[in-house]
Structures are given as structure tokens and as C-alpha cells.
Amino acid sequence: MRFVDIIEKKKNKKELTDDEIQFWIDGVVDGSIPDYQTSALLMAIVLNSMTDHETAKLADAMKNSGHVMDLSDIEGIKADKHSTGGVGDKTSLALGPIISACGLKLAKMSGRGLGHTGGTLDKLESIEGFNVFLKEEDFKKQVREIGFAIMGQTGELVPADKKLYALRDVTATVDSIPLIASSIMSKKLASGSDTILLDVKYGEGAFMHTIDDAKKLARAMINIGKKLGKDTRAMITDMNQPLGNTIGNALEVREAIETVRGEGPKDFTELVLTAGEIMLMQGKIAKDKNEARKMLNDAINSGKAFDQLKKMVAYQGGNVDQIENPTLLPKAKFITEMKSKNEGYIENIHSMNLGILSMKLGGGRERKEDDINYAVGLEMKVKKGDKVKKGDPLCLVYHDKKLDNEWIESFYHTFTYSKEKTKPIAIVEEILQ
Ligand code: URA
């Protein structure tokens, strides 16, 4: 096989065979195919796309490029979820304790934040002593014993994706649905769970800006899951405003704790409960939505979900006192209230901008090697559709350094106002399976 013929074929909009895709991924991993040839094929895929069959083969070949976690010695159905990333997204922190209190096992590998989106691992590390670097055996033991664990993805999983993603990043070939779908799904498949729930976000704070693109991506990932025999479902959710009220690591941990205790914000709680319903049905714990919702509410109201959260933090070496009493979580030096300079109904909240502003406070990373300040961030006081007067609070800013004029100016550009009442938006737009 000559790789140049494979590039030529995709350039001419032809379907690649399974063997050709396997040859490519093998060559990426062993280094026998040079980056310039892979880059050419990536660009041909961006321009001419891939069929569902090719996309599933690509995901499968990538999954098998490294270690594949075997969770089969843990009894019961093992669930996993993945979010395409958003601003204020702390879903796994609240969902894990609640669904595991209902008897479903969650074995979750998570990532770190970069740019305007936060990462679950960084949020967890705002809890003193919390260890995200578990050995596979300890991870499995924890899932077996308490029903859930969250750890960082190990280096041995899906090496093909690491190489391809680094190349895509510098060759303008990230934004291709088959490439995104196979990249995400290869990692989910290699994590070894039986079911996968995808939270595909749309809006200006998300990877997919339009609902149509979010649905296309969700469909592409569901197709991969189906072809490879995994129950894969997706929620299409709104990212046109931050999820919940907080952005920033310790602040989001606090909000997840409140949600697990039944005192979380309405939109975030609804997202968590909807995800929980789908996952309990996938895991055959509940027969329908209503039964699932009741179980989830019982887990919250009985305090079982909160106990699960404390157990998980204790298992992973974290300070449980901070979960019992979130005022012990890292605290910023200053809290500044930002007041509205306008009046009217909040029409738009530029969530990506808020993510960037939180990052600039030190709460996120501009570059992979940057350190994080766990204490800083934003606590929103308004949602889209709220009516505000001049001087009403828009947000509390938690910061360690003086806010400069550029930051403050950018903050005020985050909001647009309307004289007319604006329609509130549903957090979960659609469920696909
Ligand atoms: N996230 C991934 O893991 N891969 C992509 O290609 C895009 C987003």
C-alpha cells in the first residue's frame, strides 16, 4: 500500500477501505507515515468528509492504537458520559454521586481545561489533597467498592489521537465532524464502559456554534457507538449562557456540592437530572424517565448522593471537611460586585467571554503548562431573560489581583439588553439515540 494513493483517493472523494484506514493509523503510531502526508489526508477529510462506515472504522482503529481498559471484572453495567465542553460545566461532579447512589457504576476519565472551558480534573484538584492520578487497579477497585471514580486519562490510551490532535491543531483541520467524532469516541471506547452518554453543547460558548452542527456531531458519535456495539445516546444542550451560576474551579465544586444536596441552580440541576435519567435507563436501573427521576430525587433528598460524594473524595485522598463545609475551599482575596450600567431584559450573555475573563483572573490556562488559581472566578447573579435595573448586581468576581480597566470593559461587553421581554431557553434542547 502506498500512502500517497490513499491521499489521492480521499482527494477524489472516494471511500477509504478498512485496511487503508488501519494502515494510516498504524503508520501514525509507529511513525512510518510522515506528518506532512497525514496532514494532507486530514485536510482532504476536512474538505470531503467521511462516510459513517469510515468514521466508525477510524474511531475503532484509533481506540485500538493503545491500551484499552477492561472493566469486565466489575459487576454490572458501567456507564460513562462525555461533554463536548462548556463554560461552568461541572456536570460530572454532581452527576457521579447522584447516579452512583442509585446503583449505577460510573467509571469516568476526564481532562483538564484549556482556554475558555474548564476541566473536571482541575475542579477536583481545588479540593485539598485530591488525587486524579489513579492506577488502573485502584480506579477499578474504587468503582467496584463505591460505584464511581473520576481520574485523568492515562498516557497509554489512544496514542493515535494524541498525535493526530497535535497535527490538527496546527494544520487548521480540527473542525471536521468525522475527525471530532472519531477523536472523542475513540477515547470513550478505550475507557471500557458499556454505555456512553454524550452532552453535545451548542452556542457561542461551545465547540459547535449552531444546533444543527451539534446534532450532526451527536449523530456521527451515536453512529460510531452503534456500529461498535455500545449503547450511545446524546443530549443537545444550550451553551448560550454559562451553565449554573459559577465559573471557576472551587466555586464550581461548591455549586456541585449544593446540587448534590438539592440546593443547586435550576438550569444545572435540570441538566444533571436529565442526564441521570438517560444514564439510569441505559444502565437498566430504571425502566423509564419517570422512575429514573424519582430515584434521582430520592438519592438527593435522602442524603445518599451527598454521602457518595464524600466517599469518593475520601477514596481519592481529598479533604472531606471541605465538602462538609465548602467555605473551607480555596478563597480569593477579594470579592467585587459588578453592577449593571443598563436596564432592561438580559438578551444575551456571552459565555465564551466569561470563560476567557475567568481564565484571565487565573482560573484557567492560556497554555497547557500554565498554573491554575483554584479560588478565583465568577458567580453570576443574572440569567438570560432576567429583568435588571441600573445598579442591580450582574456578578460577583472572586479575584486575587486588582481588576484592570481592560478586564472591566470586556466584562461589560458580555451582556446585551433588550427592552422586550426575552424568552428563557430550555437547557436540554433534544435527546438523540
Ligand atoms: N475534543 C476531542 O477530544 N477531540 C476533538 O477532535 C475535538 C474536541
UniProtKB/TrEMBL annotation:
Record keyword Glycosyltransferase present: yes
Keywords noted in UniProt: Glycosyltransferase, Transferase
A molecular function GO annotation: uridine phosphorylase activity
Keyword Magnesium: no
InterPro entries: Glycosyl_Trfase_fam3, Glycosyl_Trfase_fam3_N_dom, Glycosyl_Trfase_fam3_N_dom_sf, Nuc_phospho_transferase, PYNP-like_C_sf, PYNP_C, Pyrmidine_PPas_bac/euk, Pyrmidine_PPase_CS
Domain Pyrimidine nucleoside phosphorylase C-terminal: 345-418
Enzyme class: transferase
Coiled-coil ranges (or none): none
Classification via Gene3D superfamilies: Nucleoside phosphorylase/phosphoribosyltransferase catalytic domain, Pyrimidine nucleoside phosphorylase-like, C-terminal domain, Transferase, Pyrimidine Nucleoside Phosphorylase, Chain C
GO cellular component, one term: cytosol
Record EC number: 2.4.2.2
Catalytic activity: 2'-deoxyuridine + phosphate = 2-deoxy-alpha-D-ribose 1-phosphate + uracil; uridine + phosphate = alpha-D-ribose 1-phosphate + uracil; thymidine + phosphate = 2-deoxy-alpha-D-ribose 1-phosphate + thymine
Domain of life: Bacteria
Gene Ontology biological process terms in this record: pyrimidine nucleobase metabolic process; pyrimidine nucleoside metabolic process
Oligomer and partners: Homodimer.
PANTHER family: THYMIDINE PHOSPHORYLASE
Family recorded in the similarity comment: Belongs to the thymidine/pyrimidine-nucleoside phosphorylase family.
The protein's role, per its UniProt record: Catalyzes phosphorolysis of the pyrimidine nucleosides uridine, thymidine and 2'-deoxyuridine with the formation of the corresponding pyrimidine base and ribose-1-phosphate.
Protein name (Swiss-Prot/TrEMBL): Pyrimidine-nucleoside phosphorylase
